[in-house]
Design goal:
By secondary structure, the chain is an alpha+beta fold. The chain contains 11 helices and 8 strands.
Length: 303
């Protein structure tokens, strides 16, 4: 018996599971039995193509499988009811979209395709910044607002359904009252909002007008003054965003006070930034200040 068990253990150690290298809607195969946000986006795409008539739920059931099979047969694909790379590319390639990148566009990416999406969002009144090609929190918020207004899965990711809707939706001039209510504030708006809290005391861990720490102040101002969610701590703020050679209004500026990025503020222009200082509370300071200048690490944009 001991010998048999040893043999079984040896055999099991030699089992190699197959590696799935295909990608569907960005990063995985989609098939029957799955529940996933990507499935909901797939269902939205199939509906736009007139193949899926049920409610998009995110569950890959028999109705979704039948719709996929129908699409595969009509496009001379292997009819297995599974959305792999070939089916995904066919879904994208059959789109009327003017942005044709075969991958998902999501937070943290930088590409020409992202810049095109930003321009589309700007044309429709959802994106007030200059298109840069960087997918930051402002772009993510704009995408989510657009998705919410157009009955799409609100995940802040530009997949085929969102892309189709962007290219087919009318401009902001035909629905400005709805679009404008959803747009995020500009950098100047965020700066103006931040100045309302000058004099609020410093409170370690504080994230409200009763008291802020430096990152709590930034988090609160961007969220409540611009509808933009940024990371809560200085360390995670520093890891996100796009480096800027010189700070622009609305950029986050970072300082090393303890070894590594440990303090941050919002650049307001003219060499000044607003921040929650431990000894001053919320105040405006100069980057050329004798204390801050040698500790300055750089700036990053979240737009």
């Amino acid at each position: 018996m001991k010998k048999i068990i040893s043999s079984l253990a040896l055999c099991s150690s030699l089992i190699v599971l197959p590696t799935i290298s295909q990608a569907a809607l960005g990063d995985k195969l989609l098939k029957e039995g799955m529940t996933d946000p990507d499935v909901k986006e797939l269902q939205d795409v199939l509906r736009q193509k007139g193949i899926f008539s049920a409610t998009s739920t995110g569950y890959f059931g028999s109705i979704t499988k039948d719709s996929v099979l129908s699409f595969q047969r009509s496009h001379s694909l292997t009819a297995d009811g599974i959305v792999g790379s070939n089916t995904y590319q066919a879904l994208i390639g059959n789109s009327t979209s003017t942005v044709t990148n075969g991958t998902l566009l999501k937070y943290g990416m930088t590409s020409n395709e992202v810049e095109k999406v930003q321009q589309l969002l700007k044309d429709k009144g959802y994106f007030n910044a200059t298109p840069t090609g960087y997918f930051g929190t402002v772009t993510q918020t704009a995408v989510m607002n657009f998705q919410r207004d157009h009955g799409l899965a609100v995940d802040g990711i530009v997949g085929p359904a969102t892309l189709n809707a962007l290219n087919n939706a009318s401009s902001s001039s035909t629905g400005s009252s709805t679009v404008n209510s959803s747009t995020q504030a500009t950098a100047s708006d965020i700066v103006a909002y931040s100045k309302k809290f000058i004099g609020v005391p410093y409170v370690w861990g504080g994230t409200s007008p009763s008291g802020f720490d430096c990152s709590g102040f930034i988090y609160y101002v961007f969220k409540n003054g611009g509808g933009v969610t940024v990371p809560r701590t200085v360390a995670t703020l520093y890891q996100s965003g796009k480096n800027t050679s010189t700070p622009n209004v609305g950029d986050i500026v970072f300082f090393d006070t303890t070894g590594g990025p440990s303090h941050a503020g919002i650049y307001i222009g003219n060499g000044q930034f607003i921040h929650a200082g431990s000894s001053t509370g919320v105040t405006i300071a100069s980057l050329s200040n004798s204390y801050w200048a040698p500790r300055y690490l750089g700036s990053k944009s979240v737009f």
